[in-house]
Design goal:
The protein has about 290 residues and is mostly helical. It folds into two domains: about 1-190, Arp2/3 complex 21 kDa subunit ARPC3, CATH 1.10.1760; about 190-290, no CATH class. It contains 16 helices and no strands.
Length: about 290
């Protein structure tokens, strides 16, 4: 990864090569977005904007051919988050801005990718139908809800927001790796949103989740910043307790496959907004070192 970061920062044309080659790819769009973010953070908004302009050409072509504007949203979204981070010098504000990014991306999908969403709904409906048929053969009759285009748009919007934040974090890691070794780790461990913002978006996410199925997918958009704060909280706790990387692997496995773990993490983030666990942890570490 260091070698790639050094290549990107070697010059404008090297950065352009990485940004353009990955922009139109479903597999490497995140890499293109991270390259744009790195240049924006290090060299400025103008240089980052120049990269975005050219990278949007293959991304736009891919969107026109497939009907999926995800690559375009990812590029513009990651660039926007990088601009927020460069201007505010606050990782928390950049992560918080992912809510706006997710909402805008979801609205764009509904406006410009209606046919693509309908195709996804048909695919999911067929899969659910096959599952119901398999259960019926076993003697169990079960009727599952079919997704709606709006619900799918919300889920995709949340996915784009998550990918944009991950691309931004990768760019920030690259920047620290090249110019401020160890800086990213300390910055990420201290990632924490203002208490009012944490409680506010947490409540909005819960309220939306409890609504009709067609809108419940949009709750995930509001949960994105809380999710990353939760990850930062877990990493900080592992560092404080001097546990190995195996603890983080176990944490992410539980978070991925067990829904109660997701709810517990959100609860801890809400509690941290009021109690600020890490301030106490870091204070204890400083006292013990003294």
């Amino acid at each position: 990864m260091r070698g790639l970061a050094e290549f990107i920062m070697r010059g404008r044309w090297q950065a352009l090569a990485v940004a353009v080659l990955g922009a139109g790819s479903l597999l490497f769009g995140w890499l293109s977005a991270a390259a744009v973010a790195l240049v924006t953070l290090r060299k400025g908004i103008g240089d980052g904007g120049w990269l975005v302009f050219w990278a949007l050409l293959p991304a736009g072509l891919a969107a026109w051919m497939s009907g999926d504007i995800g690559s375009v949203v990812l590029l513009l979204g990651t660039f926007s988050l990088a601009v927020v981070l460069r201007v505010t010098v606050s990782l928390a504000m950049a992560v918080l801005a992912s809510v706006v990014l997710g909402a805008a991306g979801g609205a764009s999908l509904l406006l410009f990718s209606g046919e693509f969403l309908e195709q996804l709904v048909l695919i999911f409906s067929e899969l659910i139908g096959n599952l119901e048929a398999s259960l019926a053969e076993g003697g169990e009759v079960l009727t599952l809800d079919r997704p709606t285009p709006s619900q799918v748009a919300g889920i995709l919007a949340a996915g784009n927001a998550v990918t944009a934040v991950l691309s931004l974090l990768l760019a920030r890691y690259w920047q620290a790796l090249l110019y401020n070794p160890g800086g990213f780790k300390a910055e990420f461990h201290r990632l924490r949103l203002p208490a009012g913002a944490t409680l506010g978006i947490g409540c909005v996410a819960v309220v939306i989740w409890l609504q009709a199925p067609w809108i419940s997918g949009w709750a995930l958009v509001w949960a994105v910043p809380l999710m990353f704060v939760g990850f930062a909280l877990a990493h900080a706790w592992v560092a404080k307790t001097h546990r190995g990387s195996g603890s983080l692997v176990l944490f992410y496995v539980m978070w991925l496959f067990f829904d109660p773990a997701k709810g517990l993490l959100m609860g801890l983030v809400m509690a941290d907004a009021l109690l600020d666990f890490r301030r106490r942890w870091f204070a204890e570490s400083t006292d013990s070192e003294a």
